[in-house]
Design a protein that fits this description.
Elements (H helix, E strand, L loop, with lengths): L4 E4 L3 H14 L2 E6 L7 H5 L2 E4 L9 H10 L4 E3 L9 H9 L3 E2 L4 H8 L1 H10 L20 E4 L9 E4 L5 H16 L4
Parallel strand pairs: 1-2, 1-4, 2-3, 4-5
Antiparallel strand pairs: 6-7
Helix pairs in contact: 4-5
Length: 185
């Protein structure tokens, strides 16, 4: 049986773009939203909508799967950011009997960690930059981009132009990645 209705586990412009594609394919759409997003365009443009209890439910696999079931969705599209790079979420969607609209779980797992993805690329002969070691960066090497492995959607990224700020920016990127993605790397 094919896909008939897709829950987009995202919001805003990301969800709207996926909805537009779904409409072109003749698929129904489901928006998820929280209180602050209740009047957002993506909510009104979906065929069905499910309010999430808390803002952090965009990162809650159980809440998203419950929303998909409540709205009669048979597939989940992650959009990008949030849980789109989380292999456990992709697997949980499939384990719930829903279709995962994204790369295979193994590919998400391999590429979801920038650290592991970089190792894979290096092993395949793709040139990669060395890891940033804050203790060895010199003023001449600046600016540098600090990017959390677990980050996505611009979160966990810091441009450093002053060497004295480097340690603090690395710590801030880790805190932001932990808060947004549950992983400080």
């Amino acid at each position: 049986m094919g896909i008939t209705r897709v829950l987009v586990a995202n919001r805003g412009e990301i969800a709207r773009r996926v909805f537009a594609t779904c409409r072109r394919l003749g698929l129904g759409t489901v928006a998820v939203y929280t209180g602050p997003d209740a009047a957002a365009p993506h909510v009104g443009e979906a065929d069905a909508r499910v309010r999430l209890a808390q803002v952090n439910d965009y990162l809650n696999a159980g809440a998203l799967i419950a929303a998909a079931r409540a709205a009669g969705a048979d597939a989940v599209h992650p959009g990008y950011g949030f849980l789109s790079e989380n292999a456990d979420f992709a697997a949980t969607v499939q384990d719930a009997g829903l279709t995962w609209v994204g790369p295979p779980v193994a590919a998400v797992r391999a590429m979801g960690s920038k650290i592991e993805a970089k190792k894979m690329m290096a092993a395949a002969g793709v040139p990669v930059l060395d890891e940033l070691d804050p203790d060895t960066v010199s003023q001449e090497q600046l600016p540098v981009l600090v990017k959390a492995s677990a980050g996505g959607g611009g979160r966990g990224m810091r441009v450093v132009t002053d060497l004295t700020a480097l340690a603090g920016e690395v710590a801030a990127a880790r805190r932001e990645a932990q808060s947004a993605f549950g992983d400080p790397t």
